[in-house]
Design goal:
By secondary structure, the protein is an alpha/beta fold. The chain has helices spanning 10-22, 33-42, 59-68, 84-93, 105-118, 153-164, 172-179, 190-202, and strands at residues 2-6, 26-30, 47-51, 75-79, 97-100, 127-130, 133-136, 141-144, 147-149, 211-214, 218-221. Helix content is 40%, strand content 21%. α2 packs parallel to α3 (59-68) and α6 (153-164) crosses α8 (190-202).
């Protein structure tokens, strides 16, 4: 699932992005209100984490503009202020939850997962399925043929990308940018190593292989049908 962090403090934004990615989410950072608003209106995100005190456009105005535009994605406010009036104002404008700085990342992660579960009555069963492989996007679990598969955060993000775009050949450059947020370097083998490790977990023990390599083109996940 895809999360946007709108946070002008570079250290905080980078810390949250890294933590969320290690937890298996696709996370991006916007450094000010206008950039955050533009991304949230232009791209599909599953949740936004928004700092209240943002340059150029504050978090309250950003959220009100989103709600006025009909955007209903869950929003978690971050603020250094613990005033009741501020929390009430944020919630009245359309935020779904409120977290006061400083906070423990584990608490933020728990709130993110709770908000994603609440998003719709079907959120508990939100999953991707290809053949006998199923990915639970809320609980961050992978199961093949009834067997639980333990994945790292990056492996989960890689598998989610492949399953969301099943049947589509994904070049290494796209995988590198989506999963590692890096420009592709022909001298690095990070994608090949990650694919090899993922195959060992989801394909090696099964007759039907789901991940295929198209030499010179990239990787594709499908059931061969």
């Amino acid at each position: 699932m895809k999360i946007l962090i709108v946070e002008d403090e570079a250290r905080t934004g980078d810390y949250l992005r890294q933590g969320l990615r290690e937890a298996g989410f696709a996370a991006e950072v916007a450094r000010d209100g206008p950039d955050g608003l533009h991304l949230l209106l232009a791209e599909p995100f599953d949740l936004a984490i928004v700092d209240v005190m943002l340059p150029k456009l504050d978090g309250w105005t950003l959220v009100k503009t989103l709600r006025d535009a009909g955007q209903q994605l869950p929003i978690l406010f971050l603020t250094a202020r613990d005033d009741v009036e501020d929390r009430v104002r944020g919630l009245e404008l359309g935020a779904d939850d409120y977290l006061v700085k400083p906070f423990a990342f584990t608490e933020l992660l728990a709130r993110v997962r709770t908000l994603l579960r609440r998003r719709s009555p079907m959120a508990e069963s939100a999953s991707l399925k290809v053949a006998d492989l199923e990915l639970d996007l809320i609980r961050r679990r992978a199961v093949r043929a009834g067997q639980r598969i333990e994945l790292t955060g990056k492996e989960f993000a890689l598998l989610e990308l492949l399953m969301r775009r099943r049947g589509e050949v994904l070049p290494r450059s796209l995988i590198a940018s989506q999963v590692w947020d890096m420009n592709f370097d022909s001298d690095t083998n990070v994608v090949e190593v990650a694919i090899r490790r993922l195959r060992a977990k989801i394909d090696d023990a099964y007759d039907t292989k789901l991940i295929r390599t198209l030499r010179g083109m990239g990787y594709v996940l499908d059931d061969g049908s």
